[in-house]
Structures are given as structure tokens and as C-alpha cells.
Design goal:
Layout lengths: L31 H5 L11 H13 L2 H6 L19 H5 L5 H11 L2
Helix pairs in contact: 2-5
Length: about 110
């Protein structure tokens, strides 16, 4: 089976199940009902505007924090008040370019 037979996906719930695992071994599992549930709210809001706002709040407005940031001293377990920039979702989805982030860090630490 080649991955190209599954791509592009028509729906998020069309992702093939991992080989060697039973459904009850992996959790939590999102299903079609979850994907269509409009009452669920994401931890992070998407888009370039939110990414730029987050970049300004976490990097540009806190130059001392930015200059002394050390990844091993952070915790990713508190989504409402993260100890990091929380820019990864925006970078990974292309809402924020690495170049823009680099220039913001450079500007904040000069």
C-alpha cells in the first residue's frame, strides 16, 4: 500500500488506522462526530493575524524574556499560560514564516 492512494484526504476522519494497534489501545481518538462538532473549541486560534499577534505578545513586547529564553526551562503542559512562545502551531501550518519570527527575535534582542 502506497501513501499516495490515501492522499489527498477528503475528510480528516479518512486517515488510515496505524498498523499493529487496536482502537482501544490508542486514545483519545477523534471521530467523524468530533470533527463536525461546532461546540468544540481549539486551544489555539489559527491564521496569520493571530500568529502575528502572538509573536508581538511573546517576543517583541518581552525583549528581556526573549533574550534569556532557554527551551529546557519551559513547560508545554499549560496551554492557557504557556512558558514558551507557543508559535509552533503557526510555524508548522505556515501561518507565520520562520523568517518573520527570526527578524522579530533579532529585533527584540538588539
Amino acid at each position: 500500500v502506497h501513501v499516495s492512494q490515501y492522499l489527498p484526504l477528503e475528510h480528516a476522519w479518512d486517515i488510515p488506522w496505524p498498523r499493529g494497534y487496536e482502537r482501544d489501545e490508542i486514545g483519545p481518538v477523534w471521530n467523524k462526530k468530533d470533527c463536525l462538532d461546532t461546540t468544540l473549541s481549539p486551544i489555539t486560534k489559527g491564521g496569520e493575524s493571530y500568529a502575528l499577534q502572538r509573536l508581538e505578545e511573546t517576543v517583541l513586547k518581552r525583549p528581556d524574556w526573549t533574550a534569556s529564553f532557554e527551551k529546557p526551562k519551559t513547560s508545554c503542559t499549560e496551554p492557557s499560560n504557556p512558558s514558551t512562545t507557543a508559535l509552533s502551531p503557526y510555524l508548522s501550518l505556515g501561518c507565520l514564516s520562520p523568517r518573520t519570527a527570526w527578524h522579530a527575535v533579532s529585533e527584540a534582542t538588539i
